[in-house]
Design goal:
There is one protein chain. The chain is built from 13 helices and ten strands. With 321 residues, the chain is an alpha/beta fold. The strands form two sheets. The protein has an eight-stranded parallel β-sheet. The longest helix has 15 residues.
Length: 321
């Protein structure tokens, strides 16, 4: 396993990590989730990602129980979660917001579900245009100062919003955000490669990327339709079906198959290794619904050295993005 610094911090995270979006509670029960976390740990993974909104809080509960059952020392892994969407219905101040009241109560509720005293990274799951940015920065800084989070970060914020938060923190000597969590894959590259490029140059701002397989599209398993046991067939994820059935996208993805065959790896491993190759990427968050999938995804570590500049150009040319 390769470990990289989380942005400009001193903390190192595994280049391949495990997240719980979609899978925990929806596809994995407590036992299987624990087995997947254990398999990831055996592969060298130390970074585990969650969010209060995943399965309405159930995902945090399952992950927290898994760590207790495994009996891992708290210093041995990096645990993260995210706040913004809320899980308390349409209650005022507790939905789609980053106001101070919500953040202060949200972190306490997440820690209770996780049964942990602190998380290593607390992300703002989206930016909140209705709450003054200084209020958000002060609240997140206070959470870090309280010891309930070690660092804080952003998820799907614009470069301008991130830069604004850093400048406010610098001006008032507050804890600044240190990492983004944005979508990055062969089909979705603009934020990491264009919009955030100056953030990397100026601040070495980190990025723990999500959806490196474009919700499974880059695995090639949707070329003949949507399998019944796949993410695209899950109730509540019907919005994915149009994308996973896009003929043009599927045709482009199939152009990657000969490259994967030549490198003697799966298409999923090829896509994961390609994403991990980017220097701005601190960790590639993977998802899995079974232990074998964890093992196969983490085997992408061996493919990373094979993604030469020539292979990278070939892959980019195949998908024409």
């Amino acid at each position: 396993m390769e470990y990289r610094r989380l942005g400009n911090t001193g903390m190192k995270v595994s280049i391949m990590s495990l997240g719980s979006w979609v899978t925990f509670d929806t596809q994995l029960d407590n036992t299987l989730a624990t087995e997947c976390i254990e398999a990831a740990g055996e592969a060298g993974c130390n970074f585990f990602d969650n969010a209060e909104a995943y399965a309405g809080g159930k995902s945090e509960e399952i992950m927290g129980k898994a760590f207790r059952d495994l009996g891992w020392e708290r210093w041995s892994y990096v645990l993260t979660t995210k706040l913004y969407w809320g899980i308390n219905g349409e209650t005022p101040n507790m939905r789609n917001t980053l106001n101070r009241k919500y953040l202060m109560q949200g972190i306490d509720a997440s820690l209770e579900r996780l049964q942990h005293d602190f998380v290593d990274v607390l992300y703002c799951h989206r930016c909140d245009p209705e709450t003054p940015l200084e209020e958000v920065v002060r609240a997140m800084s206070d959470i870090v100062s309280s010891g309930k989070a070690t660092y804080w970060g952003t998820s799907e914020w614009t470069a301008e919003e991130i830069r604004g938060a850093i400048e406010i923190a610098d001006k008032h000597h507050l804890h600044k955000p240190v990492t983004e969590q944005s979508q990055y894959n062969l089909l979705e590259r603009r934020n990491v490669e264009k919009n955030y490029a100056r953030l990397w140059e100026d601040y070495r701002y980190g990025n723990t990327i999500w959806s490196p397989l474009a919700s499974g599209l880059l695995t090639g398993k949707y070329k003949d339709g949507i399998p019944e046991d796949s993410r695209g067939a899950l109730a509540g994820y019907e919005w994915l079906q149009d994308r996973l059935s896009d003929g043009d996208a599927l045709a482009q993805v199939e152009k990657l198959r000969p490259i994967a065959d030549r490198l003697d790896c799966s298409m999923a491993q090829l896509a994961l290794a390609w994403a991990a190759k980017h220097p701005m990427v601190s960790s590639v968050i993977t998802g899995a619904s079974k232990v074998s999938q964890v093992e196969q995804n983490f085997a992408a570590i061996d493919v990373i050295p094979l993604i030469t500049d020539e292979v990278d150009e070939e892959m980019r040319a195949a998908v024409k993005r």
